[in-house]
């Protein structure tokens, strides 16, 4: 189950606290977007959910299980980063299957999962290509394919579209939405782009300076922003 429960989570770097008691309750299958200005703590929170960063206090549960002390590999998650360096010397298929190979999955199972993910992403005809022969959008799809083959309950995205040009970014939003509908998994997605948040999310978490200003559906934030920060950020007239 892809529920994620974040309970009074704090993070300090040395004496500096950068996240001040974060509470978020995410339902199985929900598409939740963390949005807020640069430096507000979005990536730190996502990295703590992934297990790439230790939490200073509080509790994170994924699928009902406390994961505070679990290694990233022991968590039912896969992460797609902003800088999705593909292995240049490996084909698309090899790039997508590599983490499974490291996990000693059988070659037949790797092949099956890579083909299934390629079909979902429209990469069937590109499996033998090398990254240098792919467009930006195709590369981004391969990066998502690497996450999909692992079949996680929860996908974590950190600004996956910020390196793409504006036109491609809009197209990829639609693709990621469609992907969410097909996979029926939970997605937690970080962006500083409020349009991306408003068009893609089931619910939006508006962050500012290590705190949550408001959590709500795009419509709720637009109609009833909790304060002027949210109103300005979302761009609603108030
Ligand atoms: P966002 O992703 O919203 O732009 P981050 O989560 O990257 O913000 O950063 C939140 C705050 O934590 C920032 O003030 C940043 O400078 C600080 N920070 C992030 N990582 C570290 C680190 N490894 N050491 C010290 N400070 C950090
Ligand atoms: Mg960030």
UniProtKB/TrEMBL annotation:
Domain ABC transporter spans what residues? 4-234
From the UniProt record, which GO molecular function terms apply? ABC-type transporter activity; ATP binding; ATP hydrolysis activity
Please tell me which top-level EC class this enzyme sits in: hydrolase
Chief location bin: membrane
The protein's location, in the record's own words, is:
Cell inner membrane
Q: What is its EC number?
A: 3.6.3.20
Got a GO cellular component term for this one? ATP-binding cassette (ABC) transporter complex, substrate-binding subunit-containing
Topology in the lipid bilayer is annotated as: Peripheral membrane protein
Domain of life (superkingdom) = Bacteria
- State the Gene Ontology BP annotations: carbohydrate transport
Q: Which family does it belong to?
A: Belongs to the ABC transporter superfamily.
Q: What is this protein called?
A: sn-glycerol-3-phosphate import ATP-binding protein UgpC
Task: Report the gene name.
Answer: ugpC_21
Positions spanned in the full protein: 1 to 238 of 352
């Amino acid at each position: 189950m892809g529920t994620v429960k974040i309970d009074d989570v704090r993070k300090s770097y040395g004496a500096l606290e950068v996240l001040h008691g974060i509470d978020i309750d995410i339902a199985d299958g929900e598409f939740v977007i963390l949005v807020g200005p640069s430096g507000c703590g979005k990536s730190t929170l996502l990295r703590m959910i992934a297990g790439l960063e230790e939490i200073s206090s509080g509790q994170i549960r994924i699928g009902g299980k406390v994961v505070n002390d679990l290694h990233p590999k022991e968590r039912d998650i896969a992460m797609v980063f902003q800088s999705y360096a593909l292995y240049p010397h490996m084909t698309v298929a090899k790039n997508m299957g590599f983490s499974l190979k490291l996990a000693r999955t059988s070659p037949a199972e790797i092949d099956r999962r890579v083909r299934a993910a390629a079909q979902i992403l429209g990469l069937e005809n590109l499996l033998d290509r090398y990254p240098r022969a792919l467009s930006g959008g195709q590369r981004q799809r391969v990066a998502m394919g690497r996450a999909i083959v692992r079949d996680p309950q929860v996908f974590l995205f950190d600004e996956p579209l910020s390196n793409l040009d504006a036109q491609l970014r809009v197209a990829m939003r639609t693709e990621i939405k469609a992907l969410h509908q097909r996979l029926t998994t939970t997605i937690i997605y970080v962006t500083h782009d409020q349009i991306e948040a408003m068009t893609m999310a089931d619910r939006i978490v508006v962050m500012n300076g290590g705190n949550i200003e408001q959590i709500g559906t795009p419509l709720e934030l637009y109609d009833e922003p909790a304060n002027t920060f949210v109103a300005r950020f979302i761009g609603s007239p108030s």
